[in-house]
Amino acid sequence: MTEARPATAQSGPLGIICGGGTLPGAIADAAIRDGRSVFLFAIRGHADPEVVEKYPHHWIWFGQFGNFLRIARAAGCRDLVWVGTVIRPSIREIRPDWYALRLLPFAMRAFRGGDDRLLSVIADVFEQHGFRLIGGHEIAPEILVPEGMLGALQPGARDLADIKRGLALLHATGPFDIGQAVVVADHWVLAIEAAEGTDLMLAHVAALRRQGRIRTPPGVGVLVKAPKPDQDRRFDLPTIGPQTIAGVAAAGLAGLAVVAGHSIIAEPAQVLAAAERARVFVIGVRDEDGAGP
User: Fold this and answer.
1) What is the pLDDT averaged over residues 104-127?
2) Residue 55 and residue 121 in one domain
3) Cβ atoms 256, 229 nearer than 8 A
4) Which residues contact 237 (CB under 8 A, 6 or more apart)?
5) Which of 53, 43, 131 minimizes the C-alpha distance to 83?
6) What's the number of domains the chain is made of?
7) Is 8 domain-assigned?
8) Which of 289, 293, 284 shows the shortest CA–CA distance to 147?
9) Does an H or E element contain 119, and which?
10) Are 181 and 223 contacting, i.e. CB atoms less than 8 angstroms apart?
């Protein structure tokens, strides 16, 4: 299956495989500012046309690997970034071309496990075909959450204790490839992220609060997000955006904490404005036992 050694050049067009949200555009803009051309491979059903269509691009379905190879090589792309929100597809949602059918045994193995396993197999396939996968934060380091407060609101002592408990829990569950987020309120674990993702997890907490199932009062509790201890940092770093703030506020939490230097913030100005309106804090923290610096 190997056709070429992984590329090592750090110049030439940057290929961006795009999921949803605005991050693909932020990565593209950063590359262009650095004097690099870009070409976007937009995943149908996931990528945002308003973001994608500002740049040279091609729309693809999951499974169109042969089509991807043809377009990427014609565009001169060797370095690739995979960024943006993607809901894990089922096998039935993948539309393989003839080239992809040759890789079907690899695909079947990739789907028998969590997201880390899936992404690891995908990375191996791309690299065996001569591409070099890099993290979006390597192109645009400004998207990483810095350490410290990201606004005027400060967490209290109870919030800090909840953050510490949340990080410890995520560090313990990380090897099971479950998720990257947890909600803790006054030492009580309200939710752990799994296949539903952060937004739906927060919506579940909000529903539990409306049903009277949560004992802590509104304004108590923290959303904590952290990468898994052995996670490939090129993919799927914990990400927050304006919608995260809306979910935190709807769930009646005091704020959110993410691991500084290992988490991504999308649309930071909008995040901070939304946090100020909702009166929730946002903080980048160290994770001494996990992924933190």
Assistant:
1) 68
2) yes
3) no
4) 135, 137, 227, 231, 262, 263, 264
5) 43
6) 2
7) no
8) 284
9) helix 115-128
10) yes
Of 125, 141, 157, the last residue of a domain is 141
Domain that holds residue 25: 14-141
Report whether 12 contacts 78 (CB < 8 A): yes
pLDDT digits (tens, 9 = 90+) for 173-218: 988 878 899 999 999 999 999 888 999 999 999 999 999 999 899 9
- The confidence band for 278, taking pLDDT boundaries of 50, 70 and 90, is very high
Task: Indicate whether 150 and 273 sit together in one domain.
Answer: yes
Tell me the backbone φ, ψ of residue 232, rounded to 5 degrees. -70, 115
Residue 1 pLDDT > 90, yes or no? no
- Taken in order 101, 128, 67, 116, the sign of the CA dihedral is positive
Same domain, 168 and 67: no
Q: Tell me if 286 sits within 8 A of 293, measured CB to CB.
A: yes
* Better pLDDT: 160 or 20: 160
Type of residue found at 170: L
Q: How many CA atoms lie within 13 A of 130 on its CB side?
A: 10
Whether the CB-CB separation of 190 and 222 falls below 8 Å is answered with no
- Stated pTM of the model: 0.84
Nearest to 188 by CA among 160, 208, 216: 216
In degrees, rounded to 5, the angle at the alpha carbon of residue 247 between the alpha carbons of residues 243 and 249 is 115
Residue 106 identity (one-letter amino acid): F
Q: How far is CA 181 from CA 32, 165, 216, 250, in A?
A: 33, 12, 19, 17
Calpha distance 44→34 (Å, rounded)? 28
Do 23 and 108 lie in one domain? The reply is: yes
My answer on whether 131 and 212 are in the same domain is no
